[in-house]
Amino acid sequence: MQEDFIHYLWKFKKLSGIPLTTTDGVDLVIQSLGSHNFESGPDFFNARLKIGNQQWAGNVEMHVKASDWFLHGHDDDPAYDNVILHVVWQHDAEISTRDGIKIPVLEVSRFVPENLVMSYRKLFAHKNNQFINCEQDLPHLNEFKLNLWLEKLFINRLQQKSARIRHYLKQSNNDWEAAFFQLLARSFGTKTNADAFEQLAQSIDQATVRKLARDSFQLESALLGQSGLLDEKKEDRYYELCVKEYAFAKAKYQIQPSLTPMKFFRLRPANFPTVRISQLAMLYHRKPMLFAEVLLAVTKEDIYDLFEVKASKYWMITMFLIRRLMTSLKD
């Protein structure tokens, strides 16, 4: 049994319509599942539950075994003080908050049909010669329905992307370079920092980007500052120069920083927002009218050449040192 299965049961409402009770025998009604958290902290934020006659709003944490609460150190972590329900597969220990308040427990193994468990285990059974988990089931699908479904997915994805581009164009008064910068910045943020990079791109207008792009260090400093990554005090010469450069750009161009914080948790060094921002700055230093360059590209290789970019020397050296440190720790 994996914790992901418990997430699946909760997130996709597989427990809906079932009379649920806590391990203490108290009736439990799920009114709102909350939002799935993929970073550190409880698994689901802002859920709403009715336990007995009491309404609750807060976070939900999930484990295979209830004792994993202690194994993961949640008993001494303030981030878990607002947990209102502990969802587990096996209830093997009583848990409580740091204040000693007992947290209600839902033992889902008592409510999940056996056929659903068997389907899950079959789907995720690891086989060395298996391409994907559902490989054996694909030949049994109706080809017409499968193609229809794939076409619908393609159209939905295209519509979502088109809607986002229209939104960018509306915000930038039909400036395609500005819209492209926002879309590209979101991609540079990858899944973890996509929203933060989008807010960063929206916090500085394209005309200012083009002026700053004459000097890669100026643009890099401005983007780092706008993202809030220069707010702390550090004894680092490069960092201090970036702070000074950003202060000058902020006063000159009257720009206000983005309010969405960058995340580093669970990211490899190459995907750190600092490195990605440096790459973005170097790219626009080389090609300040990047969208126009993309339109002029003839082959796929031309596109690849446009985006062949590295971070500044400072961040390249930093990544190299981090990799060496990680390698030495593994050894």
From TrEMBL:
It holds the Pfam family DUF2851. InterPro entries: DUF2851. It comes from the Bacteria. This is DUF2851 domain-containing protein. It comes from Nonlabens tegetincola.
